[in-house]
Design brief:
The structure is a homotrimer.
Chain A: H1 7-17, H2 27-39, E1 44-49, E2 53-54, E3 57-58, E4 62-71, E5 77-80, E6 95-100, H3 101-105, E7 108-109, E8 131-132, H4 135-140, E9 145-155, E10 158-166, E11 173-179, H5 186-205, E12 212-218, H6 222-238, E13 239-244, E14 255-257, H7 265-277, E15 282-283, H8 293-296, E16 305-309, H9 331-349, E17 353-356, H10 380-387, E18 389-393, H11 394-401, H12 405-417, E19 421-423
Parallel strand pairs in A: 7-8, 11-12, 11-13, 13-16, 14-15
Antiparallel strand pairs in A: 1-10, 2-3, 4-5, 4-9, 6-9, 10-12, 14-16, 17-18, 17-19
Helix pairs in contact in A: 1-5, 1-9, 5-9, 7-9, 10-11, 10-12
Chain lengths: 425, 425, 425
Amino acid sequence: MINQPSGEKMFKWAADLFPICRSITGPGVRQTLAYLKKELPDLVVHSVATGTPAFDWEIPDEWTIRDAYIEDESGKRIVDFIKSNLHVVGYSTPIDLWLDLAELDAHLHSVPDKPSAIPYVTSYYTRTWGFCISHEQRQALKPGRYRAVIDSDLKPGILNYAELVIHGDTAEEILLSTYVCHPTMANNELSGPVVTTALAQWLLSLPRRRYTYRIVFVPETIGAIVYLSRNAEHMKKCTVAGFVLTCVGDDRTYSYLPSRKGGTLADRAAEHVLKHIAGKYDRYSYLERGSDERQYCSPGIDLPVCSVMRSKYGTYPEYHTSLDDLSVITPGGLSGAFGTYARIIELIEMNRTYKEVFPCEPRLGKRGLYNMTSLDKSDLLVNILAYADGSADLIALAELIGEDAIKVDAVAQTLLAAKLLQIVD
Amino acid sequence: MINQPSGEKMFKWAADLFPICRSITGPGVRQTLAYLKKELPDLVVHSVATGTPAFDWEIPDEWTIRDAYIEDESGKRIVDFIKSNLHVVGYSTPIDLWLDLAELDAHLHSVPDKPSAIPYVTSYYTRTWGFCISHEQRQALKPGRYRAVIDSDLKPGILNYAELVIHGDTAEEILLSTYVCHPTMANNELSGPVVTTALAQWLLSLPRRRYTYRIVFVPETIGAIVYLSRNAEHMKKCTVAGFVLTCVGDDRTYSYLPSRKGGTLADRAAEHVLKHIAGKYDRYSYLERGSDERQYCSPGIDLPVCSVMRSKYGTYPEYHTSLDDLSVITPGGLSGAFGTYARIIELIEMNRTYKEVFPCEPRLGKRGLYNMTSLDKSDLLVNILAYADGSADLIALAELIGEDAIKVDAVAQTLLAAKLLQIVD
Amino acid sequence: MINQPSGEKMFKWAADLFPICRSITGPGVRQTLAYLKKELPDLVVHSVATGTPAFDWEIPDEWTIRDAYIEDESGKRIVDFIKSNLHVVGYSTPIDLWLDLAELDAHLHSVPDKPSAIPYVTSYYTRTWGFCISHEQRQALKPGRYRAVIDSDLKPGILNYAELVIHGDTAEEILLSTYVCHPTMANNELSGPVVTTALAQWLLSLPRRRYTYRIVFVPETIGAIVYLSRNAEHMKKCTVAGFVLTCVGDDRTYSYLPSRKGGTLADRAAEHVLKHIAGKYDRYSYLERGSDERQYCSPGIDLPVCSVMRSKYGTYPEYHTSLDDLSVITPGGLSGAFGTYARIIELIEMNRTYKEVFPCEPRLGKRGLYNMTSLDKSDLLVNILAYADGSADLIALAELIGEDAIKVDAVAQTLLAAKLLQIVD
């Protein structure tokens, strides 16, 4: 039913964007948004100046990184930003220093139990500098003098984010939010923007939409906070469901992280679809949250936002290291996530509340809706009529009947056409 | 406590009614209702003319069946309505045709996995004709010419149902509904009317009743719909509990089918009694409904109606075939069902909401309600006083205390007499 | 955090009070209250005259017991009140009779399955007399003549109880109730008054208290009823939580008996603390109640009162016999109960409802509340902010987060000081 984009196309987008060194501000974010705007021409890229307040926060200085390396005494680059932009701690201040090993080591980050991985480390709000290297390399460093160079700027500038509002029949909105602030990582960065972009293209291709879609690409945390500081009042009025798209690229599992209190339309649709598409999936607690639902579901904002993922951040071995490369995500993983979100959206679009028109069961036979002999059993159609009491929406109806809501909707449409059901929401 | 009719008497009624060829209309229903009226002289038999509208339905033509048979070329009756009225498909049109085997076979019904059984088949609303035979016989039929004769009428007439309203102290009503439209079958037809008749006789014998009883004998589905089209507005105002009596004749198990949403007074009383009388019983979902609760609990009617059965329709091997004969039901099975329903009714009659009269525990000793030494343990009496807070009715009180409500009521009566409890409903 | 009294001090109080022959009235209660008043000088001892009505009750005659014994024909005292005041049935009428063994035996009480124990028996409201002896002794009694002497008075007098109201910042009250009416028994009598006395001393030592504390020492049942007959209207308005302190002296387990419907602030605080202090504890049903919660939770009073115990009355082998002596209670058992109650009280004192001040997460770093690198995980502080939505009180917040509320409070205080949380109750 869904006009499925190829997983290969999403994978290619991710591969194109992979080398860019993104951070919460700076040219990397702009390059990334510019690339996505080619796919979504109506995407609006916003700029917010350093120092602009956003609730308890303000926009930080913009960070530009050009080069960074560690040379040994022989002038050999033993750590080189050109080879992996994960080597430099995000938001490192500019330096050019000769240090002995102990002094250098105080600025190194590595992960002992993943000895070959370069970890991903940032320090947005505390001025410092550092390098991330594999633990193997760190342990092999010999005493001596090292030159550490970081060619960066950290000064007033702008923060960028992008949004695309796709209007529907009503002003009620569904939010799709993803982030664009991590450097060269695949599942925990690029899977989100590319699946979101594919969903936006699909939504634009639909002849009509019941709901309006608010699609945002933001730097995580500060970007979501800035976005909410400008849009929360409107969003609180209009948002019926929302989703944070992150880690939607591998093909090992499906994961679900509920909204703060759970049970919202977003949660109900997500779980219904996961149950019928994936069967088994990993169900987390809101205590295990970690992305922008932290802002969307915060008590002062309280939007109905949950997150459906493939392997959740923090749970897969490559997470937040150089191992989270293009080998972690797959065309199948991306298109599985796309299909799941498209099905969730379809379900919310079709989620009406029905009520039977006639007291007692209607006469199905005269409408060609019943087989002739009494050997036949009650079926889905009869069960929909039996439970359609004007209080259960389609998702609740499907859960009561124990059937996939997509199937229930198909039959409900038949009953609606036969004037045996009415919409009461 | 209950003036129990003999299971033998109910069995005899069933045996007397067994040979009659009932359908949703026609002389069979009238003969059956006339027989029951001998036992319940105040039973009122109603007639509704063909074409009368009833919600989404209208009364169908009346069907009269006089004879039906299949002859082989030698003139031998190989299938004969006189031997079993299940042989003819209910509402078959009149015919007299010579057919070859293939033509005949298109009008035959049998059940391959019950090779000796004649199935029960009807086609009320699609004009056709057919014969039901054992699968053994069907497979033994030889090529050749056959004469199929059905001597029936299908023309404007009447539909009959009967009702008996037994007035009580209040206008609030308890509904007992059963059906009278199946031909020669025992558990899935006659058990319902005979247990209902016995319950009506018992209710009439009581010196007084708190509730008014509405007892209806209707053709299944169309009869219930017609009845509701005439009485639903009144019943919605007055009905506190209702039950569909069907399949109440065998002695293999007890079954419970809840009302649509469950938790009504009918459901609570039924489950409490089944737990204390039967211990174990088969608990079904409303998804597995199949009798007139489909009408009574439909969203536009929404009465508090559930069903307590012995072996539920559709679950026992003889169901809807000639095997469901008088060997399936037993005097013990019928009287067990009677006793269970009588106990449920008694429980609803005695289901008052109590509140303790005095703040703190009352002094039981001065009323002769307490043993003298402190070695004695708290007992049922003390627990009733402890929980009687004016919010829990007798059933809830019994569930809180973990005792049979009949026992709780006996002690509550003592406390009421001692002016330690008051009724607050 | 809590200024813990020594278990030894509580044990000494219990040992001092152990020999006194208490009953629901009489000099034993007065001696006991006089002893406690030395520890709590502001304790007010009340007297209520025989015949004074109290709801469904009235104050009984006062009982004074001076001596009681059984002599054999040789004049030897074979049962002697001086050796154990449990030997005489509480409220025995005065007698001086010669009886043969059969006549005597009709007035003897013993426990066959605890052959060495003298049981505790009373007959407050039915005039009789009796002796309690070990089953071993009873079975060894030889036919012959015995002289039974009870030197008691049973005549109009007074009933005593004591109360101490410790004022706090608000008029809302926490009730601590214990009883002072059992003779020489340790866990099921003296543990309650001594732990309650220690709690009162601790509460008095606090620089300030949010709540007012109502601490009552009453004869069980009649004392609580009299107390409520005088104070219930006030207590219904003011009481936010209450506890019955009984059987708080041994060190074998912790027990919890809920209020009638459970879920009150008292219940929630008690269970939260037991879970975090004791881990495992015995959870009873209100059906198993047995002390003054019977009055405090009765439907007409309905205070939020539960009971936290060590080994619950009726469940440990020494209960209600001479075996419940000072060897059953321990300094550690008493101080464990004290600490648990103190922690419950502290929790209720600190149980505020918080709401996050800023929409979205606040910026922790600028307040020194966040470590600098993104490798750090969300912690307690972040979770409190995430769930503090103005609907969950501290206990609910701690349950949501899965942490001890004491820890949650410590962090909440930091957030309050940082103006990131506000109190909204």
